[in-house]
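Progress report, Aim 2. The chain analyzed during this reporting quarter is listed below.
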Amino acid sequence: AGLADALGLDLFSSDVTRKRLAGLPLGRRPSDAVRARLYAPAMTRRVYSALLLAARAAVRGGHSLVLDATFSRRTDRAELRAFAKRIGAAVLFVEIAAPAALRRRRLAERTHAGSVSDARLSDFAMLATRYEPPTELPAPLALLIRSRATPAATLAAALLALADKRGLSPISEK
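Predicted structure tokens for the chain:
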């Protein structure tokens, strides 16, 4: 959300989309049984399809956007790339990489603070196992950001890296 806000872009979140499709409140983590249905492959396909529909409408309306979703599988990334090509949109995958200890800490913090995301420390091993590194992406379509100690510092690093990738200088000469 921070990147979309900082750049004035439309934001479409998989977490929000998933809960809205299921008719669930955004700030509450559902039971294990409900989460099993929420994160089943069929529901994930529905969520990603809904994100692509929203993206199509935004692009047709002349908007740039952020799809806030993991796209942790190569097939999901390939589908997004093909979709972007069909609608004539540019795509850039921004990956935020963090050491395991920092990922664990941030997941643990979600237990105490309300979060629309259902991922918690107890999900760490499963999330790590399901992740497929985006090694198939050519350099022009990928931006790797090393996570910093705070989300604000990570956002600042992402904005600088994005400016650099686009050939923009974040420092103006006066």
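The two ends are 32 Å apart (CA to CA). The beta strands are 10-13, 65-68, 93-97, 142-146. These observations will guide the mutagenesis work planned for the next reporting period.
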